[in-house]
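Minimal example, chain plus FE2/S2 (inorganic) cluster.
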Amino acid sequence: MADAAAPRKVTRRNFLGWWMGIILGALTVAGAAPIVVYLWPAPPKGQKKGPVNVTLDKPINQMNDGDAIKFDAPSTPNTAFIMADGGGDNAQGELAFGGFVVKNGSKVDVFAINCSHLGCSVALNAAAKTFDCPCHGSRFHLDGSVLQGPAPVPLSHLTWKEGSDPATIQIDGIVLGF
Ligand code: FES
């Protein structure tokens, strides 16, 4: 009868089996790691989504119907805004580095600055009350809708809320970390 307390003898076959298992496991991890990193890349160091505070040239509660105020993404640290919707060259989740707050009747809209044709920055045409694109001539009404192509769709909205005072708004964005 075998002694249960006696140490088990490691056979040559068991020893080689363990080593083969360890080597196969290591090769599988080494082969899969680049695929995992490709599919789920780590965000760049320091990058963080969150509200971006923007100070406007004029408080929102003093804007008149048809007023439009341009703003840029703060650069200390570098930030960008996240588009809430899109079409054409723009898309939900893409970044914008500027925008416009517009008072349209009782409504306040906040648009990304990017033209929906190929992404150039639109400029306010204060006299005509339109946003005009310098690249290929697209024009937009102050409510963001297309007045003249080639832009195929309206300007993208930015998601925002009022900040701590009427001259500040908070826009969904990202700190870029560089
Ligand atoms: S990028 Fe604006 S019209 Fe082409």
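The two ends are 72 Å apart (CA to CA). Residues 81 and 173 are 4 Å apart (CA to CA).
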